[in-house]
Amino acid sequence: MSEYSNETIKLLNERASLRAFSDRKISDEVMDEILGAATHSASGGNLQPFSIIKITDKEIMEKIVSFGNQSFIKTAPVNLLFCIDFYRIKRMTQIEKAPFTAQKAFPHFWIAFQDTMIAAQTACIAADSLGLGSVYIGTIFTIPESLEGSVEVLELPEGVLPVVLVSMGYPKIQPRVAKKYGISTLVHENKYRKPSDEEMKKAVEEKYLSRILKVKGDDTRIEKIRSVCEKVENKEFADEVVNQIEETGVISTFQYRFGLHYSADFMPSMNETFVEMIKRRGFEIFENPDFLK
Ligand SMILES: Cc1cc2nc3c(=O)[nH]c(=O)nc-3n(C[C@H](O)[C@H](O)[C@H](O)COP(=O)(O)O)c2cc1C
To answer: Fewest Cβ atoms closer than 10 Å to its Cβ: which of 60, 89, 133, 211?
Structure first.
């Protein structure tokens, strides 16, 4: 007997990102079931300020990869680009003759971002339930060349901002289910409960133990971590970090995450670029509009 009380709960607990797609085509009926579910998602004020670009053309997929995205994207039979879309709402307000400042309002942007991700996740769950799999590609938005390139190739009008791409298809190989922090780490009842250091260490160990990074002989990663730490903290902190790595022979989970992978000096350096990218798509959400000045 399954440990789950129904198939939906089982599906949600056993889902995993799929990056190896078989050649099997997705029928129009199946695709429409997935897209139908996504478009039926909850939406703030039921405005549905998003669009989904269904990419089936391999040449377009090639181009999207060439903008710096991962190459497995083009092996998927379909890629769904989930975008915030105020172009459509603006057009509708023009037709009806209604006031429109949603593109100038951070609250609308915030809700639209949530709506867009909820629609994307609904599509992913629907796909899983039909025997397909999927993976989110966040880089579509985080690499400026990828955002600009996608806008051009997909002919996205002003007011349409790509948020996330979902590569989707039938599995070639069933993906491994990832370890997660569980209820005891992520859920708080009524009030936020600050865990002890021991609890935190245990949670991290349980999630990442099998992926400990042992230091190799002449490990250039240590110098990289040192330079990141020195830049964002100071020399004393950098020495402490390096001493710890040398003593334990291990680069810890978060020394890897924020010292190497999402390096703590690089990530904030993108702030202004992001603001510019969002502005260039026609969102004036970082300052007051003229009528308020
Ligand atoms: C917003 C978001 C962006 C992501 N971007 C990428 C990506 O660019 N490339 C990729 O291979 N996986 C991407 N992923 C998938 C994560 O790596 C994956 O969800 C995570 O490793 C946990 O594995 P699981 O989905 O199998 O549980 C993304 C996931 C999310 C939610």
So the answer is: 211
For residue 135, give the H/E element and its range.
strand 133-137
Note the pLDDT of residue 218: 81
**Token pair for 211:** 């992926």
Q: How far is CA 100 from CA 19, 93, 160, 245, 289, in A?
A: 41, 7, 15, 55, 12
Distance in Å, CA 176 to ligand 1 centroid: 13
Say if ligand 1 is within 6 A of residue 73 CB. Answer: no
Question: Is the Cβ atom of 183 under 6 angstroms away from ligand 1?
Answer: no
Q: Which CATH topology does 7-169 take? A: NADH Oxidase (3.40.109)
Q: What is the pLDDT of residue 269?
A: 96
Q: Is the shortest distance between the CB of 174 and ligand 1 below 6 Å?
A: no
Altogether, the residues listed in the chain come to a count of 293
- 164 Cβ closer than 6 Å to some ligand 1 atom: yes
Q: Is the CB of 117 inside a 6 Å radius of any atom of ligand 1?
A: no
Please give the number of the atom of ligand 1 that sits closest to the Cα of 176.
26
Q: What is the mean pLDDT of residues 235-257?
A: 95
In tens, the pLDDT along 26-54 reads 999 999 999 999 999 999 999 999 999 99
Report whether residue 142 contacts ligand 1, using a CB cutoff of 6 Å: no
Question: Tens digits of per-residue pLDDT, 103-140?
Answer: 999 999 999 999 999 999 999 999 999 999 999 999 99
Q: What is the residue extent of each domain of the chain? A: 7-169, 179-209, 212-281
Q: Is the dihedral of CA 264, 269, 275, 281 positive or negative?
A: negative
